Amino acid sequence: MRLSNLELLNFRNYENLSLVFEKDLVIFLGENAQGKTNALEAIYALAMTRSHRTTHEQELIEWQKKEASVRGTIEKKSHKVLLDVCFTKKGRRTKINHLEQKKLSSYVGQMNVILFAPEDLALVKGTPQLRRKFLDMEIGQISPVYLHNLVQYQHVLKQRNLYLKQLAETKKADELYLTILTEQLVEFGSKVLFERLQFIKKLEYWANTLHQSISQQKETLTITYDSSIDLSTDSTMKSIVESYQQALGKTQKNERFRQVTLVGPHRDELLFFINGRNVQTYGSQGQQRTTALSVKLAEIDLMKEETGEYPILLLDDVMSELDDSRQLHLLEAIEGKVQTFLTTTTLDHVKEKMTVEPMIYYVEQGKIKGESA
């Protein structure tokens, strides 16, 4: 899978931009605050229909403009796909080959991307919310069904939490309504949990392979799904449903007291272990960074295994955050495999270590000029 061209209209500081990508390594080179990250953000938004930097879509629209659009052509093994995302103050519109898509799950997955930014090095030591978001974004690209079930789960969860608050205020319970909400919560939540467990098993395999290579076979990486429900990596759909129902039964009184749903995918967590020791708690900064790098790079082979196509890799000023050894392993993992878009303020981290000739775009004050390396 590769992106052959990109067109931006009123996106961030790009009023009108059209780029063609003829090579598999594209570098956006320039000083800070010139628009390099905006270009990567546009590619990410084309794939995911949202920004990785903000939840406010109005921020993507150039000042005093009514809407912004991102368009690009994806080349796959057997065909090409034209993607189009339009951001307005009222929401967003998506098109595939000029046909408007009403469901997010119909659009996401057409173009698979992996974004690696400096903040992703905090994947290991950051908040549980960050790791849940990582799971949802990555599985959602591979499985439209997961994305659908997640949206439905979040909708029912919001309704259930709202009703629990109403119960505390009115003291009158419609037990039938609460039972229906709980059944729906279990139905969609169990499907989300099942896919998460399947994904983590595969992620652990690929991530451990990379981690052992980076650590010169000195360290073994394991990943555990720490759930608010009693689960194991071998849990079946049936056993997940049963465990989920039991967990909700045990927390029923406490939920009514605290007016919130206390168990489910929205409360779960990822744990990382090196040689059996929790990296989040006991790992060095170097181990935490190596773990984050291994996990992010593992997605490349995992997505290829699941979709039959390599994803597109977006590296936003990551090279300067890694030491020479980790830079080398990153470049070895991607070279010859995936189309890569990279932002940097200097070529020192790249040119000496890569055998592939890059396409370089110079970025200055929202203007992009192409030039051969």
From TrEMBL:
Gene3D superfamilies: P-loop containing nucleotide triphosphate hydrolases, RecF/RecN/SMC, N-terminal domain. It is found in: Cytoplasm. The keyword DNA repair applies. This is DNA replication and repair protein RecF. ATP binds at residues 30-37. The lineage of its organism: Bacteria, Bacillati, Bacillota, Bacilli, Lactobacillales. GO terms for cellular component: cytoplasm. The gene is recF. Belongs to the RecF family. Keywords: ATP-binding, Cytoplasm, DNA damage, DNA repair, DNA replication, DNA-binding, Nucleotide-binding, SOS response. It holds the Pfam family SMC_N. The keyword Cytoplasm applies. The RecF protein is involved in DNA metabolism; it is required for DNA replication and normal SOS inducibility. RecF binds preferentially to single-stranded, linear DNA. It also seems to bind ATP. Residues 3-367 form the RecF/RecN/SMC N-terminal domain.
